[in-house]
Amino acid sequence: MRGKMRQWVMAKRPKGLVKPSDFLLQEVPVPTIRTGEVLVKTLYLGVAPIMLRYMTNETSFEKPMNIGDVMIGRGVGRVVESKCTKFKVGDLLQTKLGWREYGVIKDEPYFMTYKMSTTDLSPSYGVGALGMNGFTSVIGMQDICEVKKGETVLVSGAAGSVGSMAGFVAKALGCGTLVGIAGGTGKCTLLTESLGYDHAIDYKAQGMCKKFRHLFP
């Protein structure tokens, strides 16, 4: 007989900020996989602001959530059973696991599954710098913006998970001056003291337009 696992489901739709009572912890049987599927043991789960919009069905790129559904979310886990030719037992995957101890994953575009290489880095990087925010930053700066050496780069939402990584990528590509936009003194200080930004523009402060004109004459 298969064992039990825990999972978090949506108990009700949030009104305003998310509260613990919006979730319900359940104990359910570990699922059985079918042909073309793998069973992945969750090691790390990512939590992001976008999950609030998942719960209120305000996104066009994620399937609608109903009350009682397992919380949608990406994570890193290791394959413990496989009936899929692409992934074998022991593989470390970054994929849509949901908030549960074991997830059933298929080799389908919806899961956006990536096999992680074995390195000296913690697998937790798969829900951080080596996760979707890191991929987005690299594609944005390298492939879309095509940042060149010596250029001045402006990043909006610079203190967020994507914006913070975008700054590091821009610097790695050789940008001359890195400017970030964020809201509040604390976030702007974080940009210049910890995240490698040369200048920070506080969109909540007075004089924002003047600072723009100074940095971008």
From TrEMBL:
Designated name of the protein: NADP-dependent oxidoreductase
Secretion signal span: none
GO function terms (MF aspect): oxidoreductase activity, acting on the CH-CH group of donors, NAD or NADP as acceptor
CDD domains recorded: PGDH
Species of the source: Costertonia aggregata
Residue intervals passing through the bilayer: none
Domain of life of the native organism: Bacteria
Any matching Pfam family: ADH_N_2
Keyword Oxidoreductase in annotation: yes
Domain Oxidoreductase N-terminal: 6-108
Keywords: Oxidoreductase
